[in-house]
Amino acid sequence: MSLLDGLKGALGGLVEQAEAQFLPELLSKALASTSLGSLQGLLEKLQASGLGPQVASWLGSGANQPVTGDQIEAALGDTIIGKIASTFNRSPDEVAGFLAAHLPTLINALSPNGALQPHA
Question: Global pTM?
Answer without folding.
Answer: 0.78
